[in-house]
Design brief:
globular; 7-stranded parallel beta sheet; 258 residues; 47% helix; 7 strands; alpha/beta
Length: 258
């Protein structure tokens, strides 16, 4: 299926591995030139080398996208882009009594204010061109809060509210903003969460993964490849009528009619 975005230029954050990498791979396969970012230079460059195998131009910019300095460097290198995929690692798990104001500020900076800053910087160019796509990778917790991920629940819900209003303001100019909400996927984040269960309960990693898989109707973790393909569709010519939506990709874990 031709997504109609060959020759477009995208910025994909946290793209060296996991879900961000899956999105970058799918966009490259669709013929999109890429600017990719992550903190680890070595892993980022390895991913860039693989992406170039699709015959697209790839610029790798290492740095912390959640810091003002890192963000400024990425934006300066990226210049004008047609597609933005925001992504950053989630804050650590815990319970309500663990977190202080500083913890919330850090979570908001990474998972709410960073995507907002990137959109604010790049949306004007998209509006001027009359075409743009933004996909924010958030979390299933936006629709169904996860008790031990209170920091993430709060930050991502705030971003969702911002997108809900902003998406409808820029839609008349051909700019489409949506959110993609992952459930559990086979990524380093899943390993980290499962490791917490292993340590807390003294079970094996295989047992922890089997227990979590049993709670998902699909009976498995999602893959970065299928997540990336969904993201690429949301960036395509066919997504122009999808405005301000929260697309859940969780294997059916959330049991709800709407």
């Amino acid at each position: 299926m031709d997504l109609g975005i060959k020759g477009k230029r995208a910025l994909v954050c946290a793209a060296s591995k996991g879900l961000g990498r899956g999105c970058a791979m799918a966009l490259a396969e669709a013929g999109v030139d890429l600017v990719i970012n992550a903190r680890g230079a070595e892993a980022l460059e390895a991913t860039a080398t693989e992406l170039r195998g699709f015959g697209v131009n790839v610029l790798a910019v290492a740095g912390d996208i959640t810091s003002e300095e890192g963000r400024a460097a990425v934006l300066a290198a990226a210049g004008a882009v047609d597609i933005l995929v925001t992504n950053a690692g989630g804050p650590p798990p815990g319970i309500w009594s663990d977190w202080e104001r500083a913890d919330f500020i850090k979570a908001l900076d990474a998972n709410m204010l960073t995507p907002i800053a990137l959109m604010k910087a790049l949306l004007p160019g998209m509006i001027a061109n009359g075409w743009g796509r933004v996909v924010n990778i958030t979390s299933q917790s936006v629709k169904s809060p996860i008790p031990q991920l209170g920091l993430s629940n709060a930050a991502r819900a705030g971003l969702t509210g911002y997108v809900g209003g902003t998406a409808r303001q820029v839609a008349p100019f051909g700019v489409v903003i949506n959110n993609l909400l992952p459930g559990i996927h086979a990524t380093d984040r899943a390993v980290s969460l499962d490791a917490g269960v292993v340590n807390a309960r003294g079970i094996t990693m295989a047992e922890a993964q089997a227990e979590r898989s049993a709670t998902i109707p699909a009976r498995r973790y999602g893959t970065a490849e299928e997540f990336g393909a969904t993201c690429a569709f949301m960036c395509s010519q066919y997504a122009g009528y999808m405005i301000g939506q929260n697309i859940l990709l969780d294997g059916g874990a959330m049991n709800a009619t709407m």
